[in-house]
Write a structure and sequence with these properties.
Structural class: alpha/beta
Strand order of the largest sheet: 3-2-1-4-5-6
Radius of gyration: 22 Å
Helix content: 40-55%
CATH architecture of the largest domain: 2-Layer Sandwich
Strand content: 5-15%
Number of strands: 6
CATH class of the largest domain: Alpha Beta
Shape: elongated
Order of helices and strands: HHHHHHEHHEHEEEEHH
CATH topology of the largest domain: Endonuclease, Chain A
Number of domains: 2
Largest sheet: 6 strands, mixed
Number of helices: 11
Distance between the termini: 78 Å
């Protein structure tokens, strides 16, 4: 019997534009497909590369970098023998293991937030509820500076503003995440940086809300009580079916990443409820315009 070489498909070239975390998830997903197509268990694959099934799980979920030796051994096990295919896949794995764009800011970033930046760029959808401040992905430079300058030296504050501005580029990357933000109306009346800064910030929200991948809703005072009162959170959803949604809860000195089914269900219900209670995107845009005109 003649063995037909296995060819690798399914990694969109645009994935690399979303950053190394997105590419790592795509490479991992391809490794899982190759393994499953051959009917090989994670345990057998782990033993083949001198590891464990847990290591295979981390590789396939894109939660760790890749070593050339492991990739080549797995490709051999999975029947990928054509040299051009092997070289292409190893090259992708190397790119996936490179530091993210935020690496040059790592002196400012705690490890738990570096993790979030990678996941944020890799997400298909970002849903966020904010009850205190404008979400980072929607902030103007002046508003950001006003938020973070307290307690920071000027040079450090400037670099933090650069970091947040750089984050916002994911909203313009082809195939990048869609953003759906629900803002408590209180956010529009808290004069962070003064009235001028707040007015420019609200005008920016109006402009950004016109982007096809951005939805902004305002939860008005008239809505009364709501299930997200007193909290802010972000839900990340990924295109890859094997990756669960993640709820990100940022605290003063740490962050929580929730992916248990029961936790996800609670936050989905809360997010759905506040979206229903909030004004529609068009009504929210009108509310934003009116709020800016009053400042």
């Amino acid at each position: 019997m003649v063995t037909v070489p296995v060819r690798i498909t399914g990694i969109d070239a645009r994935v690399a534009e979303r950053g190394p975390t997105a590419l790592r998830i795509a490479v991992g997903g391809q490794l899982r497909k190759l393994r499953e197509a051959k009917g090989i268990t994670p345990l057998a694959a782990g033993e083949h590369i001198r590891g464990s099934h847990a290591k295979i799980s981390r590789l396939e979920l894109g939660r760790t970098g890749y070593k050339d030796r492991d990739i080549l051994d797995l490709l051999t096990l999975y029947g990928v023998t054509e040299q051009d295919q092997r070289e292409m896949f190893v090259d992708l794995a190397r790119k996936a293991s490179q530091p993210g764009w935020w690496h040059r800011y790592n002196d400012l970033l705690p490890p738990w937030f570096e993790t979030y930046l990678g996941l944020e760029g890799a997400a298909q959808t970002i849903r966020t509820f904010e009850g205190q401040l404008i979400p980072g992905l929607l902030q103007t430079e002046a508003y950001t500076h006003a938020v973070i300058e307290v307690g920071n030296q000027s040079a450090e504050a400037t670099r933090r503003v650069e970091l947040r501005t750089k984050r916002q580029e994911i909203l313009d990357v082809p195939g990048g995440p869609r953003l759906w933000a629900v803002l408590d109306e209180a956010v529009l009346h808290r004069p962070i940086g003064g009235k001028k800064v707040l007015r420019e910030q609200i005008e920016h929200l109006v402009a950004v809300s016109q982007k096809p991948g951005v939805t902004i809703q305002v939860l008005p005072y008239e809505a009364g009580g709501h299930p997200a009162a007193g909290s802010s959170f972000t839900m990340l959803r990924f295109a890859e079916r094997e990756l669960p949604d993640i709820v990100y809860l940022e605290q003063l000195t740490s962050a929580l990443y929730l992916d248990r089914t029961e936790d996800l269900q609670v936050y989905r219900e809360v997010m759905d409820q506040v979206a229903v209670q909030a004004e529609t995107p068009q009504q929210s845009r009108e509310l934003l315009i009116a709020a800016a005109e009053k400042l």
